[in-house]
Write a structure and sequence with these properties.
heterodimer; A: 199 residues; alpha/beta; B: 230 residues; 6-stranded parallel β-sheet; 7 helices; 6 strands
Chain lengths: 199, 230
């Protein structure tokens, strides 16, 4: 796995700032019995679509392994087409920012026997950030793949991931996260290993 | 707004341009309540020095940033109390049986600090009759009676102050906004270990959830409401 600080915030966070966060540097990983939470953005945001491909890949990896998949969607918004919920996947309408606030998400995670979360979606600094922090508050270990989240502002995206990675979640690249899933399930495929080596 | 915003110099132009589409409700209301997050001795530990110099001996201290916010916060409390604006204090629940296996609000590696340091700082101590909320997680609302306290106080708008700007204060702001309150963050009375995280979160909260105002503007707001009542 790459160095803890070797992610997208490298060019906006100075060495001096990194130094005062050194107590957060630690081993990262995916928790036990993870569910995948896809945080779909609201309408009217101008979020570059680069995150949707990696998120779709993460979604397909989760489905292939039979993980519980849940979608958080704002009222009236259409889910991102590339991440459209399957008929048997749970969709929780969120009235505010966190996927938990005034929704039945926590109940769904309990009844679905999830013990940790993998979260992808957008915007990084809004609904995704609030959802990750509340996941942590509910006692779930949270894993994030940096390519599978996106924001209107590159700057807010980087700072939000910096904050989340240090305080609340285990941030990895998509390849690193998939490798963790493989190790967990003991089903490392040659394809995943090749991609990890490339990354 | 100040002449110079509190996040001055930290936010790039494309990101600042997003303010053109800001839709946060104005900070209105006649019965504001101040929610003061985590202003306990631990964050002032080691004195008003740069955080990098305090890290080894006082890993949770916000150092000079905490001390800089102290005088404006003391003055804010005096104005609030003189004008019948309630203050709800928030601190960490230190009962050992609530933390038996080292369950913590963030992923910081930590030595268990002296639990006595979660006492609210003397200068900001709750006055007789003021409410205190004891929390375990980032948001002051999570697992606490704060939402009920605000209803019982008749709050219709919330000032958030305290620390850290990017952590507990921010997640409390998001939850106050989610509950439907107009929210104001008083920029001189919130602080963080990192100036970058402080400024980025102030901007982001102003963009999405709250009105960021300085302490003189907040006191003006409180006094104007008091004048209307009399």
């Amino acid at each position: 796995m790459r160095d803890f600080e070797d992610y997208c915030w490298r060019d906006v966070v100075t060495e001096a700032e990194l130094h005062i966060y050194s107590a957060y540097v630690r081993e990262r990983g995916v928790g036990k019995h993870p569910a995948l939470l896809v945080v779909h953005p609201g309408a009217g945001l101008e979020i570059p679509a680069a995150w949707t491909g990696p998120a779709a890949q993460l979604l397909s990896e989760a489905r292939r392994r039979g993980l519980l998949v849940l979608h958080s969607v704002p009222p009236g918004a259409t889910p991102v087409a590339a991440l459209a919920p399957l008929p048997d996947e749970l969709v929780c309408t969120r009235p505010c920012e966190s996927a938990f606030f005034s929704t039945d998400l926590e109940r769904m995670l309990t009844t679905g026997h999830a013990q940790s979360l993998i979260v992808c979606g957008a915007p990084t600094s809004g609904a995704l950030r609030a959802s990750v922090i509340e996941s942590k508050s509910y006692g779930y270990k949270v894993a994030l793949a940096e390519e599978a989240v996106g924001d209107e502002s590159i700057f807010l995206h980087k700072i939000a991931l910096f904050d989340l990675a240090h305080k609340y979640a285990d941030l990895m690249s998509l390849a690193e996260l998939v490798e963790q899933l493989d190790e967990q399930t003991g089903t490392a495929s040659k394809k995943a290993q090749t991609e990890t080596n490339k990354a | 707004m100040n002449a110079k915003p509190a996040w001055d110099g930290a936010i790039d132009e494309p990101t600042r341009a997003l303010l053109g589409r800001r839709k946060v409700q104005p900070f209105t209301g006649t019965r504001p309540v101040i929610v003061a997050v985590d202003l306990y001795d631990l964050v002032y530990d080691g004195g008003p020095r740069p955080v990098r110099e305090l890290m080894a001996d006082f890993p949770a201290s916000c150092g000079e940033h905490a001390w800089r916010a102290l005088p404006p916060t003391v003055a804010l409390y005096a104005a609030a109390r003189a004008n019948a604006v309630p203050i709800v204090h928030v601190t960490y629940d230190t009962r050992l049986e609530t933390d038996p296996r080292g369950i913590h609000p963030t992923n910081r590696r930590r030595r268990q600090p002296d639990l006595a340091l979660y006492k609210i700082k003397d200068e900001l101590a709750p006055a007789a009759g003021e409410l205190v909320v004891y929390k375990k997680r980032a948001s002051a609302f999570f697992g606490t009676p704060l939402a009920a306290f605000l209803n019982e106080l008749g709050a219709d708008s919330i000032f958030v102050i305290g620390e850290s700007t990017s952590g507990c204060a921010r997640s409390s702001v998001v939850e106050a906004w989610s509950l439907g309150y107009p929210v104001a963050v008083i920029s001189d009375c919130v602080f963080d270990r990192s100036e970058l995280a402080h400024k980025a979160s102030l901007f982001d909260m102003h963009l999405k959830y709250a009105e960021v105002m300085d302490q003189p503007a907040a006191i003006k707001h409180i006094r104007a409401l008091s004048a209307q009542r009399n």
